[in-house]
Amino acid sequence: MKLHEWEVWHTYSTYIETTRLDLASCAERLVELGLADFVLISSGESYWQTPEGTGKGISSVELDLVNGG
What we know:
Layout: H1 23-32, E1 38-40, E2 45-50, E3 53-58
């Protein structure tokens, strides 16, 4: 998937004091519930909406500094 336009909503989880929080499960659930179209967590795991359900994969971000993207 190649994104051409995007809006970033950043949620800070660094200061949550718990060892039982599974960020991957939370991210997947946000997409399943329709609260987010796409979620990328710090490990690179990604979750997105598809017509068939929730897509899962590993993302990499490449910035195009020449064109400002």
